């Protein structure tokens, strides 16, 4: 069975993110993309616009000294421009480490990601990691 094109797009995004290829990742997003990050910490908020989203990703890499990584586990498409991902993220920051299941609800418009709504298993653990 062939992968749905929206899932293929999101998979390419995960691959680009995981390899640190922000140039390719940026081409997969609309110029007005928004990445919503849950919690109450330095990474939380509504990062609006491609430049702001790319800066978020650079900040994550910088704050974790390049240790942040994501392993994609599953993708689900609805055939109407939405994809849900399930992944596990890992990172170290100072004397803290985190390993956490999470996911992102993607909205796709015109073959590009226009919205990412991120969810994590434990918001308080996530907050503590980034504080």
- The stretches of 5 or more residues where confidence is low (pLDDT under 50) are none
Structural class per helix/strand content? alpha+beta
Tell me which oligomeric state these chains represent: single chain
What is the residue-averaged pLDDT?
Answer: 97
| Strand residue percentage | 35-45%
Reported for the largest beta sheet, the result is: 6 strands, mixed
Q: Rounded to an integer, what's the Rg over CA atoms?
A: 14 Å
Shape verdict = globular
User: End-to-end span in angstroms?
Assistant: 44 Å
User: How are strands sequenced across the largest beta sheet?
Assistant: 2-1-6-5-4-3
SS element count, helices? 4
Helical percent range?
A: 25-40%
Topology as H/E string? HHEEHEEEEH
Total number of β-strand segments? 6
How is this fold's topology laid out?
Blueprint: H1 5-19, H2 22-27, E1 29-37, E2 45-48, H3 50-63, E3 69-77, E4 82-93, E5 96-109, E6 112-120, H4 123-130
Parallel strand pairs: 1-6
Antiparallel strand pairs: 1-2, 3-4, 4-5, 5-6
């Amino acid at each position: 069975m062939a992968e749905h094109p929206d899932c293929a797009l999101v998979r390419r995004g995960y691959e680009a993110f995981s390899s640190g290829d922000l140039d390719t990742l940026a081409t997969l997003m609309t110029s007005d993309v928004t990445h919503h990050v849950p919690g109450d910490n330095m990474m939380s908020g509504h990062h609006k616009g491609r430049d702001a989203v790319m800066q978020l990703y650079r900040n994550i890499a910088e704050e974790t000294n390049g240790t942040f990584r994501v392993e994609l586990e599953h993708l689900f498409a609805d055939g109407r421009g939405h994809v849900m991902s399930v992944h596990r993220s890992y990172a170290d920051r100072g004397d803290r480490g985190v390993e956490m299941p999470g996911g992102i609800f993607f909205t796709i418009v015109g073959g590009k990601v226009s919205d990412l709504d991120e969810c994590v298993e434990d918001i308080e653990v996530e907050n503590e990691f980034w504080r």
